[in-house]
């Protein structure tokens, strides 16, 4: 089975980072992964997106016409990608910036004040980490400890001084996303799988 996720927002909101964390967590669980970044020449302040495809077998194509989920952190991304979510899918919306609903009745729209929750965690730039936590909490694409370890691996070596804020932001989003989906981050049982890594640089 394959699952696909689109992350989209302004450059500087951590769009590529969130996609990379999800991809690394999936790899560490032995899943097949594609991580496909895309960003405009402006980078910070411009548009950015990344697509992550996760499969328990070989992935047929890196092209995603309709995603199982999308995370949109600003109005232009909401306008562009809300229609790319497949019927029955999930749209995670940063309601701090995106005020209008999609109007779609065939998807779940999870609206979260990502900027406020990131600020409460210690850094209001961590909006994508809050949204990633909500995504993992709602869909269980990877185990919570795999995602937290991927954050440690990605952030800890280069910027250990912000690791605590990243983990707090993830936990804040996870709590929102998992309100109807069982255990908290500290209660989830960690299982083991055989490792097999494909498609994402470490």
Care to describe what's here?
This protein has a six-stranded mixed sheet with strand order 2-3-1-4-5-6, with helices on both faces. By secondary structure, it is α/β, with parallel strands linked by helices. Helix 1 packs across helix 5 and helix 5 (about 145-155) runs antiparallel to helix 6. The chain has helices at about 15-30, 75-80, 115-120, 125-140, 145-155, 165-175; strands at about 1-10, 30-40, 45-55, 65-70, 85-95, 110. Strand 2 (about 30-40) and strand 3 form a beta hairpin. It has six helices and six strands. Residues about 180-200 have low confidence and may be disordered.
What distinguishing features does this structure have?
single chain, 202 residues, alpha/beta, six-stranded mixed sheet, disordered C terminus
Quick structural overview:
This protein has 6 helices and 6 strands.
Largest sheet, spatial ordering of strands: 2-3-1-4-5-6
Shape: globular
N/C terminus separation: 24 Å
Summarize the amount of helix as a percent range.
Answer: 25-40%
Largest sheet: 6 strands, mixed
Secondary-structure element sequence? EHEEEHEEHHHH
Percent range for β-strand residues: 15-25%
Total count of helical runs of at least 4 residues: 6
Q: For the record, what is the CATH homologous superfamily label?
A: Pyruvate-ferredoxin oxidoreductase, PFOR, domain III
Report the CATH C-level class. Alpha Beta
Show unreliable segments: 182-202
CATH topology: Pyruvate-ferredoxin Oxidoreductase, domain 3
